[in-house]
């Protein structure tokens, strides 16, 4: 009986360890994506209604990653910044995740402009 319990405990620890490795890999990939940085023009960002290039970076991150859990976003961005994007209608908050809206994509395309081959007509 004790041997079975120990075996089950070890399996659970291994599963937890694998889950943590997957989570840390995802965090590392997210940081790499942001470090292969797109440089936003602050004047263009303001022209499209954002107050900082960090907001544009958050939109870019959400577009690249898709729906993202709150805790991952909190590691990369100030959540007040993300909540401001929600208030502007550029990001949607679904349960515990955040995702970019169509209007958020349009603003992001405008912020990126022709420099990245994604200009607005």
From TrEMBL:
Superkingdom of origin organism: Bacteria
Annotated region described as Disordered, given as residue ranges: 1-28
Name of the molecule in the record: Uncharacterized protein
Organism: Anaerolinea thermophila (strain DSM 14523 / JCM 11388 / NBRC 100420 / UNI-1)
């Amino acid at each position: 009986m004790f041997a079975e319990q120990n075996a089950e405990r070890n399996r659970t620890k291994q599963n937890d360890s694998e889950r943590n490795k997957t989570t840390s890999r995802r965090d590392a990939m997210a940081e790499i994506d942001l470090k292969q940085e797109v440089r936003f023009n602050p004047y263009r960002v303001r022209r499209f209604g954002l107050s900082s290039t960090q907001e544009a970076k958050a939109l870019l991150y959400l577009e690249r990653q898709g729906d993202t859990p709150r805790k991952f976003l909190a590691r990369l961005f100030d959540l007040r910044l993300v909540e401001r994007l929600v208030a502007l209608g550029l990001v949607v908050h679904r349960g515990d995740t955040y995702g970019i809206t169509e209007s958020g994509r349009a603003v992001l395309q405008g912020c990126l402009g022709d420099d990245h081959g994604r200009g607005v007509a």
